[in-house]
Amino acid sequence: MNDGSISRDLDQFLGAYFHQDWDLEAEDWEGVVDSYVKARPVARALCNLAQEIDNLRQARAEPDLEQFLVNSVGVDYLPDPLTYTEWLGQIADRLRTHAAMIDERTASER
Question: One Pfam family of this protein, by short name (predicted)?
């Protein structure tokens, strides 16, 4: 379980979406992120999550980050050939991309 160094939202996102059976829900990590966004299409929340991911990447060195994600959060995804730091960066970027698309769609509906 989360040791308290990340928010409940980030803990639930990583632990619940990248669990041991993640590949039954999507072909790849991008599909997992897309499923999360589809269930929670709120741009501000996605940006906040992306920022927290960036903070986590900066706060922990790679070996500590991997140990934390796997042992404390329950992530069961190996981002090979990427490092966990790189992989989380790509997740944050994808969340921001989705947030921007949601904002654009909202603006065009006005």
Answer: CdiI_2
Distance, CA of 68 to CA of 74 (rounded, Å): 8
pTM: 0.93
Taking only the tens place, the pLDDT of each residue in 32-65 is: 999 999 999 999 999 999 999 999 999 999 999 9
Contact criterion met (CB below 8 Å) for 73 and 6:
yes
Residue 20, CA distances (Å) to 46, 55, 110 in order: 23, 25, 41
